[in-house]
């Protein structure tokens, strides 16, 4: 709308400029002599005012009805004064009309608003791109083959075929096939994520080179993509403290401009007595003081930072939470599932005369048929390491002690310290020392026996995520204390903390005590972020200055956190702080520019330098006002260059 009005108003303003007596005198040219030439500026100037200026007049009406006069009211006042004065001069009042100034003023104002709207549209472009991720159709698997259906026709339980390179049409579970899936648009993960049977896939992500059959679990508004879009929209609509400050400043500036304009008009009438010049100064003050840049300074940064966060897997639920993140000096992690994987895995293997991989492969062979959590952890660790696990036969559980099986003709037994006592096992010194070290670290220890002789020891624990060490290092580099909160025994917690370089540990903490620990840190003067899964951590998330909930891929509707992480990646915490600090810097820079510009511009528009021959015509005032808006918009766009630490 602003674009269309700008181009048509520009065309209509051209005759106004060409037949303007003042411009003909200044530029020493003569316009074509046509009938009623003296009325051309008035006619075309009036059309520009009514057509191009209508949007500002309507906006002013809405501002005044809401009793919140601002930018639109100032612009409307300026062009209405110029129009009324020029019409009076055209009808016979003594003075020089301002038709060409009025026309150029409206045109430049429309151009400034068009640029502003384009900037905001570009800032929200990432959200529009999210909406384009879903395909229009899907291939539903039927008894007779496949059929092409609209995505909106899919229901839970449908089985869909996702061919290589196709977008996944709905949230679901992989039932058959294996492929790498590009989740960059949803989670910001740069590398394709391997997906196989039983893995969760997200609507809108792109399948790689393999073919997948996916059982639908969520469609329409219940998909992760829809949840992300809702969170982004809510965040862009939520108000930050900086926005409230800017709004108050803009409202104050309206009354300052009004007062300055009235004072300017009165002063020039007293000093000079030239009503045309006094009106020109009044109009220039009103135009140049428009709080356009001030009104754009914060909302544009908000829109850009929110979409930038969304494309990096950081979903902002509450703008104030992101704003607070810049001042964090303590981050509290819930251990299980955040810093660790949340499942048992092998962290150390020692053998007597055998390599660690050989011991682990033999142990996995014995545990292959067991359903025990520890057994599954051993088998998975062997698989993850790519070890060749030999076959086993005659598997037998040893109640309360472990299990045994025959592997390559040898009877192998596996179990904890009770197994050693039960068989009165012979344990070499190296195995004894390795077992004691694992127990000191709070790890679960199991022994592998060949007959009655111990040939290896395996330590298992809730495995530390590979990303956790990097996350802690980055937080330390940002000057943030790292705290771990867990219900585990102190020995276990201390071992993880020592491994990661964590500063403070709260161990053996019950779920209902977590919020109390947050308050304890706040009582020390800390600004605290809590990172948890949003379920049993909800009270602590709400208590913290910034609550960060782990979304874990599809669970993006976490209500307790200010920020939701799409991935369970602790490295996203320093990214939140980095984004918050960069966002705040841009807000401050824009507010200083927008406010500081008026400090110098208003006196200049009022004519304080007129005795020295320096005067601003209203159109030049509009150029300067629009230029300040463009500078604010460009500065906000530079936020996109923020290094998120990937």
Description:
The chain has 646 residues and is α+β, with helices and mostly antiparallel strands. The chain has four domains: 245 residues, no CATH class; 88 residues, Calcium-transporting ATPase, cytoplasmic transduction domain A (Distorted Sandwich); 145 residues, Rossmann fold (3-Layer(aba) Sandwich), CATH 3.40.50.1000; 122 residues, 3-Layer(aba) Sandwich (Calcium-transporting ATPase, cytoplasmic domain N). 51% of the residues lie in helices and 19% in strands. The strands form four sheets. It has a seven-stranded mixed β-sheet, sandwiched between helices. It has a six-stranded antiparallel β-sheet with strand order 2-1-3-9-4-7, with no helix packed on it. α1 runs antiparallel to α6 and α11 packs parallel to α24. The radius of gyration is 35 Å and the shape is elongated. It starts with a helix and ends in a 9-residue tail after the last helix.
